[in-house]
Structures are given as C-alpha cells and as structure tokens.
Known about the structure:
Layout: E1 11-15, H1 21-32, E2 46-53, E3 56-65, E4 71-77, H2 83-102, H3 110-125
Antiparallel strand pairs: 1-2, 2-3, 3-4
Amino acid sequence: MNVEVPHNASIKFRDIHFSDLNSVISIYKKKTQESVTDKLTARFGLPSSIATDNNEIIGFASASLNETDEIKVDTYIVKTVGNLYVENMLKQHAEKALYSRFGDFEKDNISLKSSIHQLVVWLNKY
C-alpha cells in the first residue's frame, strides 16, 4: 500500500528522548481518555519513536502488552492530517528501533517486557 506524505507537512520521525516523556504521556492519556491522575499500566508500554511536525510532537509509537501478555506496537496520534502516513511510518520506525535494542522481540520478549514494567513503575513514582 502506498501512503503519501501530506502536502504541506514537515513531519519527521525519530527515536524518543527522555525530554519527550511528558508530551508522550499527555498524548497517551488524551487518546485513551485516561485521567491525568490515573496510573500508567503495561498498556502504555515502552515508547520508542515519535513523530514531529514543525518540532511539535504529534504522535508516538510504543511497544506494549496486550490482554494476553503479548507484545504489540501501538501508535497514538493527535494530528488529523496524514494519520495513515504517520501511523505507518511510526510503526516502521518503532519496529526497527525495537529490533536494534531487543533483537527478535516477538520470539524472545522477556527483556522487552521487563523494560516495559520497569518504565511504568518508574513513571508512576514521579
């Protein structure tokens, strides 16, 4: 499937930085309609990639655990222009980043699951 870049967009994709976490958590809570006081769970996952438009974070991709404790890559996007393009590119970027950090995480996901749980616990403390 060919997905075109929206015409007047300056969308870029990159690895997440520590300084991005507040924006990422805000997007996650907005898209999942969770209260700002709700604690994060393994469904938040381990964010690995973000999308920016004119240096504003408009979405992110995260490796998370589903109901059966399997890894999946979710995307959360707040900008409505070019969502399919942003979603596809975020997933590709995230999967590439996750493979480089965790190897074949779909077969051997113990390390990735541990990282997800550690991040969520740490974020909920602060």
